[in-house]
Amino acid sequence: MSLALGQRFIADAESELGLGTVVALDNRTLTVLFPVSGETRLYSKTEAPITRVSFRAGDTIKSHDGWSLTVEQVEEDNGLFTYVGSRQDNGEQASLRETLLDGVINLNKPQDRLFAGQLDRTDWFTLRYQTLEQMHQLSQSPLRGLIGARMDLIPHQLYIADEVGNRQAPRVLLADEVGLGKTVEAGMIIHQQLRAEFAERVLLLLPENLMHQWLVEMRRRFNLNFALFDESRLEEAEHDADNPFDTAQLVMVSLELIAKRKPRFEQLLAADWDMLVVDEAHHLAWQENNPSREYQVVQDLAESIPSVLLLTATPDQLGHQSHFARLRLLDSERFHDYQAFCQEEAQYQPLAQVAQKLLENEPLAADDKAKIAAWGEDLAALAEGDNNDRKKLVSALIDRHGTSRVLLRNTRAGVQGFPGRRLYAQALALPDAYATAIRVGKMMAGRKSEAEKLEEQLNPEIIYQAFEDDDGNSWCQHDPRVQWLVKHLKHNNNEKVVLIAHSRRQVQAINDYLREKHAIQAAVFHEELSIIERDRAAVFFADEDGAQILLCSEIGSEGRNFQFAHQLVLFDLPLNPDLLEQRIGRLDRIGQERVVEIYVPHLAESAQARLMSWYHQGLNAFEATCPVGGAVYEAQQQSLAAALLADDNAAFEQLIGDAANRRHALMAEMEAGRDRLLELASQGAGRGEKLATDIATLDYDPKLPIFLTQVLDVFGVDQEDLDDYTQLLRPGERMLTALPGLEEDGIQTTFDREYALSRDNVQFLSWDHPLVLSAMDAVLTGDMGNASVALLKNKALPAGTTFVELVFVTEHQAPKSLQLDRYLPLTPLRMLLDKTGTDLAPKVLFDNFNRQLTPIKRHTAAKLAVASQSLIHNHIQKAQQQVAPQVDALIATAKDRIEQQLGGELARLKALKAVNDSIRDDEIDALASRKAALLKHVAAASLRLDMVRLIVVVNE
Fold it and tell me: What is the pTM of this model?
């Protein structure tokens, strides 16, 4: 290399120094000044780890005065380059000597980095190409946004999440029965909306008692970290912003707080939100001239927020008018008149009956066919057809259903997969210590409220502790329920047992007693534990060699899944049937493989025994779900409390009989009003089953573990196998960049869905996990791996033979919310050119070729790249011409997909609009606008060279 003062170089291993200038030369050394960083380096002339920077026609360069030049010609004089071309600021012809180049150099193109000696390791090049291929597949996958949730693959949940989550600004009422997973469905929808960038700011408006459950569910299942805003958090946030709600993207706040504090409501309303989610929406009471404050709050928010999800298991709990009013929150134009809504509903009931016949392959009567014909001649023709036509007819009837777009409801009657339940009622003799305490307690109960009296009668240990001044666990020695529990654990020592009691004090006392008196180790779960402590308790219980029993306070019935156990002990009973169902629902879930055994130890001839009888004989709430239990309780609440305190067995038997009659009547009414068309619309006609199968197949695909192991290894993440299922990931000492989700102390991870479901402290890794996504983004958003040189040892080829490997990608400038990648995905187009420019890629696959390559020292590689500069430039120009037709074909295919999918859906919605008013005009307009925008952006898509590698043959 001929050296001269003023030549510009870049340091191979210190590109951050910027563009250097040769300022001194002697016989053996050269001195390079890097003006931007102010550093000076002294190098040996023969082995200097620097690369000469030169530009070619077409490149854009910048002077140290700030103006830019598009190079048209390069002249050389006494070893220095002069670049001639036109200035970008005024278009005038100008020349720029290399000594006057700006010291800040941005090598954006892979060929620039290659010629400047900024070369990457061979494994980095391989990783970048594999990441491009994975992104290509993921961007088109219909499973994107669904695969990452820590959940069982339950078809109806997957269908609802897919159906609603892919809409732009969905406004839907999720009304699945208790235990069918509304929270999970909502979480998946939120996750999909965020992944697709349909939404960025999400507001959860929740009852106070459900805040913790939602916080845990969103974090553990979906890796969504919501900020819980209570009054103290709001006051603290006001120091950081005028509107405290602007300090977080994902916000959770209680409906009670917002309804009571007008200033907070006004701040909430003033903030910009993309999505509103309201749980327990049946509490939003409404009458035409007297809406509740809670309803008004949600109404004002719903009018200003594009996307709204309302959740309730009992849409008719406060009456049919309130159900109509909730639909009105979703679309006030569509649901504007209650009487018209009732008349419309009546029209759909006959269709539901016809649909039932079609599903059961029963013949249709003439009257049935007439009902169908009234909805269109096209339907009448299907009614005369074969089984396939009958299936199409059911789908068409679903499409025409009045509320199937805005209301989704699954019932246990329509969903399979629930285990059975079996009750074991353990009547135990009242001990003398409790009998005395109860008798004295009644004598001294004059000033106590009825609620206090009832709590003492249902929990006699409270009275005992008060009289004995016992703050510890001595009551456990007298309580026959605790003694029964000890025997049960010893006789069932191979079974995992969950016990739920109403208070933290009970749980702590039982735990201390089991440990101190019987050496039984238990895991404890109550409200005063931190999330980390709860995780540890859950892990201790889930482990095969861990605790046999998990002792939970009432919080144990919220937010956690313990379905790997099947024995549930109810140490006491709550008064609210919905709370009882929540307790049982921790084990009685879809996916539970064994009959759930429910043990209720209780004191004979006591309030405990009477309450258990009311639940079992009146509501049948232990061995079956009782969706009307809340309604029966509301009707009997006062009389039930009085009967539990009294000793009148005859009156209590009458109360139980009345409860049973009410239950039967309400269940019959519910079944008669059961809307089969609505349920069918909510189940998805097999789509959910296909999604579940496809996700399960992807779960067992080894591509992700192999790929992620390579990525983390390149990034410098320490990976340690803990067992067959679990791996510990920790930041290494030489990490290239920080990865979101990788905590300083490390995280435990697994690729096994079932294992992750039983280990809350272990993160479930999938293609949707933030760690995986951030690692892929880190690879592709920078220049990592886009320029490399390698050796090919092959005696069959002449030494010095060169190949140029190029990878082009499609690119566009469309907003991410359009999801153009679904139609025109990031597509790597690889070419492998020999010295004549012939493309060998179709015959020489990347993986096979890559395995034959070996690394080369960086300094030597840089010299080879510079020596091959002219050849590489010519190959790039030829390759761009050769690959252009492939890009045109990709663009044409993308346009066809947009027309077929969005055009077809748009035509369908417009046709349905004529027969189904629940199709909103703004939904059609949004779809039409999205289609037009997609076609515009796909037409403007272009090609970009993303990777270049020089391969040189050696015969060694």
Answer: 0.75
